[in-house]
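Much of our argument rests on the idea that a fold can be written as discrete symbols. In the encoding step, the backbone of a single protein was reduced to a row of integers, each denoting a local shape. This step matters because it turns folding into a mapping between discrete strings. For completeness, the protein is quoted in full, as a sequence line and a line of structure tokens:
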Amino acid sequence: MKRIKYALLLLVCVLLMGCGKMGEEGKSAEAVTADQALAAVKNYCHKTNPDLQGIEDAGNYPVYWDIETADDNEIVILYRSYTAAQVRYYIDPATGETYVTEFMPGISTEEERTEEAFNIRDYIVEGAENEPEEKNDTSLVPGEYVREFVEEFEGADVTYTESFVLNENGTGFYTAQDTVAIKWDEERIYDDSMSFEYRVDKKILRVKVDNEWREFKRK
């Protein structure tokens, strides 16, 4: 009888140890969040290009990162390089596996996949995604900003211009085909019918329209 009890006790212990082991090994890592991915891509870019911070600090070329899209299946982070290239990081939130594409406006016709591939989890900085988002320096906002772009019209390439005039008192004008009065604060440019997120530095105004950042150069 004692042997049976001992055998049963031993079996229970083995089962409990096995369950504990399965709990540790079977537990899947939490999915990468969009904010974690954004901070990790920034970290990756700085680690792979030690000169990048100095280029950012100099302020001679616009450099920025943005969460372009994010859902349960894929996160896409856009990095606008100082070379003007648009580099996109396609991230699987579940596994962290990441591949990279590059698009050079005026040269490329479409995104081209590069040879870069890594796991974004290797570059996640704990707590970085909880840092408060940088606000625009409103002292840099006032000025006139212009964007030229080319579109095909009736078989010919036509150059179009759109512009913002932003006044010190938080008012301004947006001009494309027509001119409309607008307002701005430290986060958005808006009127009664539209509202756009923006970022500004000494030379560039970036306005987010339909999940795309449009660049306007300061005159």
